[in-house]
Every structure is written in structure tokens, then in C-alpha cells.
Amino acid sequence: MAEDRLNIDVKTLEDNSDLRQVEFEAEVSEERYQFAVQYDVLEALSTVSPEGDAVTIFKQHAEEIAELGVVALARDPDQEIVVISENDLD
Fold it and tell me: How far is C-alpha 64 from the geometric centre of its chain's CA atoms?
């Protein structure tokens, strides 16, 4: 994949506290995908618990999440929702 980051659609950000993840849509190479970033990733990036503040933390670290999203997409491109997990952190 030639792209090195996602173009995140911030209008689609949704905190799914039941699954402990923030879900969103993003575009890569003119294709749209569904993504989710786990709370554990948000906590690793911010060093604070995302409970109740996950979307704000997501926005603060959107650049890093965009880069991690490409890694997750390359690993698992055929999933309905591509999940960005701690495995995608460097």
C-alpha cells in the first residue's frame, strides 16, 4: 500500500464504551474503510485512561492513529471493521 496514513473523517467519530473503542471512518487511496481504535491504544498514546474522554483523546492523537491505521489495514484489509490494537504500536 503506497499510502502512509489515513484521512480520518472526524464527523464519524463514535465512542463505543461497551467495546472499549472509538469507531470511525477513514479514506485510504480513495477507498473508504471502517476502523476502531481500542482504548488500550488511546491510553498508551496519552498515558491517561480514556474512560469518558475517549473522543477527545482520539482527536489529540489523530496523527499517530492515522499512521497506526495504515499498519492495521495492511495486516487485515478484508475485515468489516479494521481494529487498531496495541499490536500496531511500534
Answer: 9
**Residue 68 exposed, middle or buried by CB count within 10 Å (0-12, 13-18, 19+):** buried
**pLDDT one digit per residue (tens) for the chain, 90 residues:** 445 679 999 999 999 999 999 999 999 988 999 999 999 999 999 999 999 899 999 999 999 999 999 999 998 888 999 999 999 987
**Listed residue (46, 66, 57, 44) closest to 17, CA to CA:** 57
* Residue in 39, 46, 43, 41 with CA at minimum distance from that of residue 21: 39
DSSP 61: T
pTM of the model: 0.91
